[in-house]
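One record is set out below.
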Amino acid sequence: MMFRYFSNIWIRMHSRSSRSREVSEVVTLAEIQNKNKSTGLRSTIHLWRGDITKLKIDAIVNAANTSLLGGGGVDGAIHAAAGWELLEECKELDGCETGGAKITKGYQLPAKHVIHAVGPMFRNRKSDKEKLSGCYETSLNLLAEHKLKSIAFPCISTGIYGYPNKDAARVALETVENWMYKNPDRVEAVIFCLFLKEDVRIYEKEIEKYFAESSEMEVDNPEYSSEKTDKISNDQRQSEPKEQDSCPEESNCNQQSSLNKILETRADDLSAGQHSNTVEDAVTGAKDIQGHPNEHENIAMKRNDEDKKAIEAADHLDNQNSNENEKQETRNDLQGNPPLNSAEEKATEATDLRETAKKDLHQQELSPSERLDWIQKFESLELELNRRPVLKNTEPWLDEQHFSGLLFVGGLDISYHKTENKACVSLVILSFPNLELVYENSTIEVISTPYIPGYLAYREADHFKEKLQAAKDTKYSPQVVLVDGNGILHPRRYGSAVMVGLDADLPTIGVAKNLMVMEEFGISREKIEDIESKGGTIDITTDKGEIIGKAVRTSDMSRKPVFVSVGHKCNLETAVALTLACCRYKIPEPIRQADHVSKMTLKKET
């Protein structure tokens, strides 16, 4: 409960500091209806581009996860704008199955209610369409059941869940059309709230097939609008480059929403115990915040001003003749990504570079014969043990909906000292699905095994094994472990997650921040750049067509994906689904918190 306590405090604080500002940004149903010149059934369907949290209507739909306890993207923005009361009510709902929906009050939102719909993760199955359609149908049924008349839908499942935008739009329009013909006069307004220019263009074209009428229907909110449909030919649409999942440069894209997400992420930093190393210290920190709300409100407002200045700096940079990629990356860092994925990510990258340099130093210290001796030792051990990872689900709860039998998830990470042969090895264990810290074990260890490319697992495995063995004697023994590194997505199919799983006889998942060049599998630097440039979930295949991992965009705010692979005792689809279920932001919480603790512990030591 400690982490939720932190989040609640920051949500309360942020709500007080921004409430007066948000009132002026509210958009009423009348404003949207006045822009729709259609008649008949079509007059009830509206396309609107903007922030769904600003709509003053009966109900907005939240693209939620199965826990209903908040997340990233639209889900996080709605929870932040609604305030802590929404989270408290959601805790009483006992989650929601995929394809279903549940309704709550809107609290501090302009909308009266929030309908939380859980979309499917796209796996190209027949059931994907059925479940996505179920989100829209169930939401409309709840609207009618509560005698409400207006509703706004976001693009459900098209973000990190990977559902193709056009296919998702067709499912949404078809489902709404069928429901409205079966339930005439039950709803006064259905609003499709769009954000990406790509979605605007898709809906402008596809809506004609489902709600055809001669009169023009334009996208409301011209501040966010793309070019009008009648001014863009199909040839022009096909020739235009695809928008990235970040704010278009020529529109406002609601900078305040981005800043809100920044504050929300800072709340998550606190919830991870950023300024404390123990559960007790974190609780004390929470009490301090509660006792001095004005002081922390001032800090939040000060940071808010700093973020605005940062965005202005990005705008100024856009006017210079710098490289286009550099401009977009800077804007994403300052505007789209919260500090956790910008400043802290840069610090992490710097630390990773130092650690890489240290590993290279170890490699240079070995003579060729010494290096060969170590490799022969490693390979002899592999032959002696004769162990291979199991690439299928072996535990019943792995096949259960929402992983209902899963109680505790572990995260392992190691941070190396800059100049000495030692490192901080960290294991954190979080409850599931709440992702609250229940156990942490971090120690400084002497690293006696040298770094040899392709054999990193042998350098770390014994230390990870000791940590998991110690946790096994507690009531918080993890049922699955996420490892900062690779599983079978590895030149030798034997990454750290594989060895941890074999040593502990547990399901393990490798989650890496970077993808290695593996020419032997046809994974070149060019292929990696192509994978990183795409959104959603992308298969990582060898030159023979074998899928050995997936690039997963875990947050709409992330510039780069993480790379997920099986370690032991689960299949790849389960590994991806569980990774997403453990994400609040880009990095899964078990690994993010283990990484944070290991770096802070090592910093204190040095």
